[in-house]
Known about the structure:
The chain is an all-alpha fold and 531 residues long.
Amino acid sequence: xxxxxxxxGPVETRGVRLAELLAALSLGIDLGFGQPMEHVLRQCLIALxxxxxxxxxxxxxxxxxxxxxxxxxxxxTDAYEQAKWFGDDIALKSAKFDHEPKSLGDLVASVRLIGxxxxxxxxxxxxxxxxxxxxxxxxxxxxxxxxxxxLADQLGLPDEVGDALAGSYEQWDGKGLPGERSGEAxxxxxxxxxxxxxxxxxxxxxxxxxxxxxxxxxxxxMFDPTLASxxxxxxxxxFDALGGGDTWATVIDxxxxxxxxxxxxxxxxxxxxxxxxxxLKSPFTLGHGRAVAAIAASAGQHAGLGADDVAxxxxxxxxxxxxxxxxxxxxxxxPGPLTVGEWERVRMQPYLTGxxxxxxxxxxxxxxxxxxxxxxxxxxxxxxxxxxxxxxxPARILGAADAYQAMRERRPHREALAxxxxxRQLHAEVRAGRLDGDAVDAVLAADGRRPPRRRAGPAGLTxxxxxxxxxxxxxxxxxxxxxxLVISPxxxxxxxxxIYTKIGAGNRAAAGLFAVRHGLLPDDRRSFPxx
Length: 531
């Protein structure tokens, strides 16, 4: 059996550069905003040039560097809600740069998207629901920064990066979100990253003239006037050769201060943290990456793979969902049949994952394996329609583990399948010549050895509160929770309020992240712990 290529030398001794992992993730952030790949990388270069122009030391430049790479990483965490209200979360975010913030044009553009893709009555209902939840929407946007800060902490970045990300939507005039800081109280890295983000788009669309005009027009309002004056004073220093050469290599080589490398355990912890974050995009995929990783690694051991290949499969399982960021939740969360065009977007997910990872020599082997996750032995898979002879055994294990876990999870068009039914469907795929029988047997054997999920206890949650938390994490409203648990909507709302207070969450995404990290999601996602 031909195996996929691996990095030369064990990752555990060499370590993977954190900058490369964040740069790869940034390409997914680009896709989720409807921007061309390397938008974030270019804004990172602008941020570094601004930092140099104002004379920041290495430590502060490093803070600006990591803040710029992670600036909008939290914006996909409520894509489920964005799509529910506006029809297409990526279309909504891509319009961010088309109008002056909080202008009439910005408001009109947002209103036009409400309920997009729905019939007139559906659009009216979406508008009414949005009006009832306008405060929640504001809080939701503010939570983007908080969740990004949380990810920075999980990745072991300095506290200054987390603080800067927490303030990344604040503005110089105090009219940003959550609106708690203004002027010099906004972290310097936050001010630099915000300006760099808008400058990159303006420069790409209209050149240096447009970029300088944006900096000038919003100086003292959205932007720090001193930073804006740096742009006006020497624009060539900021924008020279911005779009030329190898942007990826330039950004990686520009990492300030000491290069951060992740050894084996820290690398897997970082991959798990990012996988959990990516999976927040939809309540239907919550915890999917880490669950597939556990099954695939155990299956690999059961099938007799060596330690290096088991580690490769586990890590590829954690990254295989990265490309999901580039597909709208209007597709992922659609309850009805997908159109031909929508299916083509779904089939792009593994390809996008590969594109995100292949620029890094150390991450490319994970991309090679992840991109084959949806390939099938009879050539009916995607994105490349590979024949069985071109699909390695580790890739076959990953594909079977991913398929099995997906069957065990609820989807918009069906409930989760019980273990027996999921096993029957996997065996049917083997008989049809699509999945490998040995891989399927290893996956089913591995699933039987999984430890039971934790059901109660963290943060002082009661068993009933865990029950409600799981439903919140899965995207159910208070009314739907009440129907599920046969309680009143008011009681459900009180439970949700108490849960948020105990776990320090403010929305579905934060609650879902807590549930995943504490092992609270039931193995069979149709059933929930008893009170």
